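Database export, one record per block. Field names are fixed; values are copied verbatim from the stored entry.
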Amino acid sequence: MKKTIIIFSQAFDINSGGALVLHKLCHLINKLGRECFIYPYFPGLALDCFNEDLFLLNIQATEDNLKHYKVSSEFNTPIVLPSSYKAIQNNKSYITIYPEITMGNPLKAANVVRWFLHNPGFHTGKIYYESKEIYFRFGEETERIFLPDSKMSSNLLTVTHFLSSLYNEEDVAIKRSGIAYCLRKGKGKKICHDIENSILIDGLNHENISSIFKHVQQFISYDTRTYYSQLAAVCGCESIIIPDDGISEDQCFPDIATRYGVSYGFENIEKSNSTRHLVADYLTQKDLISELNVLNFLSEIDNFFDR
């Protein structure tokens, strides 16, 4: 009998890439006929040790807030009640998937997968993982780590969700003007453009952002990893990424296709403009391939935990 899968995730948020793909992963696993649930993420617990009293307080807080825990009407993402954690604890019938930001093993899961949506330790400078786990990277640009008695998969688990109904070239401005920009995970970098009359998209919803992309001339991202760089290109923007110090274009974008329509630095705008027409088809194909990626992922984790 196949193991049930639990995904430790924050509430669904269409404007949060991490929450979006964690819920999309749950949906695709269920679509493929496997049983998968979301376990509501809880922050603030010291996860390098297990303090049951503190843990139960977090459980209670999570259950109290479940009525505000959002899911997508598009996705099949059933929620498991936090109070049922004892049924999961050390139960080999379950596989638990944690995003890379999760420290330790808060659910005391018997079988642990870590999904690196970003470089491990990027947000905190620290990681705390355990032995006999298996790790998957979201993309080629994500760093590998190797820890004793755990496996770094050679396969990627890339799951995407292209909002093509919003990001397209319908109703674009006849004459574009102005600049939009984002900081996001690039906050703290040296600002390389005049922000006085530029539009900051951080915190805006997709409807507002897509409208902005259809009217401005350029989009400048200080975050080298945001999906918005490609979405801006789909809307006809000149899309520019401000490079990280010491990181080349080849290191930032190992996959040539991820460079379509995106200029790594201001000096590559002409080259990126010449491939901008390829971005929408590329993002559509990535959505289609996501299901195959998940199928391969399920096969690998089953083999790993059935040893």
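Remark 1: The mean pLDDT is 90.
Remark 2: The helical segments are 17-31, 52-64, 85-88, 206-213, 228-234, 249-252, 269-274, 279-305.
End of record.
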